[in-house]
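#struct-queue
[09:14] JT: dropping the first one here, sequence first, then the structure tokens:
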Amino acid sequence: QRVDELDGRLRHAAAQALKRRTDAVAGLARALELASPRLALAARAQALASIAQRLGAASRRERDRARTRLELAARALSTVSPLATLGRGYAIVRTSTGALARTCADAPVGSTIRATLAGGVLVAVVTDALGADLTGSRSD
């Protein structure tokens, strides 16, 4: 009977020891799984994907802002462009030396001038000059 009792206690102690060891191994496996680089890498990959998405959206917004600024600058530049002025019916007049003719005195009667217009250049000889009053009356 003593042997049976000791055998039962031994079996029970062995089962308890096995259970403790099994529980310890399971705990270590859980700790190992939590410390696994796979989880950290998955979390980092998700964070990286989120950052890449935000970066893409920010770059699209910045590109759109830059495009808008460029379009506004192009419109502003177009309004002050000499070509736009020529398109409204004005001309750039140069003397035979290539200097700009700003007044009638810069292109006296008999001189050759080049008038740049929206559609090309006219070469002309000055045959008459009106005064500076811009009314069409002569100032002689």
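[09:21] JT: and here's the second one, same format:
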Amino acid sequence: MQEYYTFSKFLKEKYKEKVWKVSIDAGFECPNRNEKSGRGGCIFCRMDSFSKCQSEYNINIYDQIREGIELGRERLGIEKYIIYFQASTNTNAPVEILKELYEKAIDFDGVVGLSIATRPDCLENDVVSLINELAHKVDVWVELGLQSAHNKTLELLNRGHSFEDYAVAVEKLSKLPVRICTHIMLGLPGENRQDVLHTAKILAHSPIHEVKLHPLLVLKDTILAKMYEQKKFKSLELEEYASLACDFIEQLPANMVIQRLTAESPHDILLAPLWTKNKHAVINSIRQEFKNRQTYQGFFLNTPSN
């Protein structure tokens, strides 16, 4: 029995062949970090950990997409692609600009899907209407950064939005023919196993389709790094993370796709946990934990005493 429902399995079932996600950086800004908001951004965030761009819309997405598709075709023989607007907040622009960028992306031969990473508080009605329009041309995913269902944690992280903002965003998107993917971090300061289980149960009974899990990364020159160095919280060990990831996935419906189970950052800015440098070891540890428990995704979903 497969321990959890992988994204690769879902894509193979849906498209009957291998599909590759081409990640691009369109130069978007995060509204939680800009000078107008004055909020300073999330305490764990460093833009250079995921974005090559420091100013608005100045990277040629044509070149990024073309290079990604050519690489997939030449090296792996892949013919179908999902274009992933990954870096920063990819709905944080006037809708006219979004429409131009998204339509450029889906115009390439072989593109079957569009994935848009954004924040729960950055989905205005005109953007939602645009996403609905695009969803009638290609398959669309919207990825929402949540991290935790606990407002106390979101405040500590300086997320700049509440769980209620996330719930409103999900409600809007659930009315569209799109797939909703929620990002969650494990090992957050102040959270224990029961807090993690609470977040898992909330997602399990919501209209989302997919989840991305990863450990909290401590990056140099962040507020979180100062907290870590002052021993205000402890980074998870690999065994602890594997255990929490299994706890989380055991609560989710069997048909909810697990898009991701770990995360990486440039090694020169990573303080902890250092075991995240080995992606395969992380995934293998989670799989082994499931085998040791003899459980699987959804195992505790219908257990009221859990």
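[09:30] RK: nice, looked through the second one.
[09:31] RK: The chain has ten helices and nine strands.
[09:31] JT: good to know. The mean pLDDT is 93.
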